[in-house]
Specification:
By secondary structure, the protein is of the alpha/beta class. Helices cover 45% and strands 12% of the residues.
Length: 369
Amino acid sequence: MTDTRAAQHLRACIGKVATGPDYSKDLDFDEAYAAMQHILSGKADPVQAGIYLIALRMKRETDTENLATLKAIQDNMTPLSVALDQLVDIADAYDGWVRGTNISAFVAPLLAACGLPALCSGVVSVGPKHGVNQHKQLKAAGIDVLMRPAQVKAALENPACGWAYLDQSVSCPALNALLPLREQMVKRPLLTTLETLTRPVQAGRTHLWTGYVHKAYPPVYSTLAMAAGYDSALVVRGVEGGVLPSLQQSASTYRTFRDAGAMQHGESDPHALGLNHSRRCLPLPDGLARRDDGDTPVMDALAAAAADAALAALQGAPGAARDSLIYGAALALWHCGVSASLEQAAADAAKALDDGSAYQRFCALRDSH
């Protein structure tokens, strides 16, 4: 499609999706795919691109529109293949946390120490929260958050490491280039959902582990994960929509396996694993109040505090940080079949913290650059 025809196509799509609650029409797969390809090309008028994405959200995106947009994003990526039997993609929310201390990225070296290679991903910052995400956590801990694909591959395949971080600016520059536009849009577009499901790295079996808040999302994530090529999906009702569930109460989990049919619903109880806390997660440090405006100095300070707490937990320190890492790791190990039960998975994770192997895996990546 020529640039002129692509621009005309986007205008036509806006005409269909942006005509109010009574007259807006859904797009078919080809329409939505072509519109997103034009936006990702960098040649679309930014005002029209923003109107299109906001109109989709106001209309409410259909499964077809989500699937087409995801396919367009994946077609602008070159997936990194790794020589591993299996890999878990820890797809934590890219906009991060602002109400608690987020340490989700540090589950990755713990999982690696337990025999499950793990990938983290993200962006430097994105709305609406602009909170502490995996990029900020790992940068504060001294990890290179702009590793090139060859470095990511080497780290994941290294038996002494087994985990890595891959930034969106590296895995999909075309999507990353839309961050300024998304900032101007204010409200979250469908890209917020889809960017965590792109499967940037693929192994023999690649598992998605992500989180949600709203009840409507588990089947959406399940459908998209299978379309993206994941072999399974673990969707957890996590704190602030992230992958780490509450330490205070039971959390719903949804599991989907490519070869096992329908999505499976269950409940995980931290108390059954001996994790007993009066708060859902590690609280914000004293003096660093919740901020919803993404204030950079505050978020950097929160990221540094998160890194300090997580590194202490990786070295065996007790408390909520340790228990969050154990709980999250247990869910992933159990889901991926590395441990026979959730209880055994929690015990395996605790052992990897206590014997120092999880911290050694962290140091292996940190010291590799």
